[in-house]
Amino acid sequence: MIECRPLARIWGEDAEDAVWHAAIDLFLLNTGNAYDALACLFGVRNSFGFRPLTEDRGLPEDASDGLRNTFNAWGGPRDAHGRTWISWTELADANWDGQIGPARSAEIWSPGRGPTGHRSGT
Do 110 and 95 contact (CB within 8 A), yes or no? Predict the structure, then answer.
């Protein structure tokens, strides 16, 4: 699920109205099994030997109701595999040439910079 805080850009991240909203279900983008990307980013099904950027963080404390409802619909903590998240800032700041593991890792997953106030996860 990709979440965003559209009012954070206007009022600041600490503003009362700068809450997270569910924006895009990542299921819509997963037309195949992107295990290499999931392993690289989140450590999910990591038979590739990556050092994941964010592993086992759980759900964000301030997750949107939409994300929590989706998570619970998938079975909650009992059935959902790989609960974690990452911010666009962390993606942009990652050392894609050395931090994540095998030499082929930069070929597998190299995201561009995203706007502030956005995050995604599994």
Answer: no
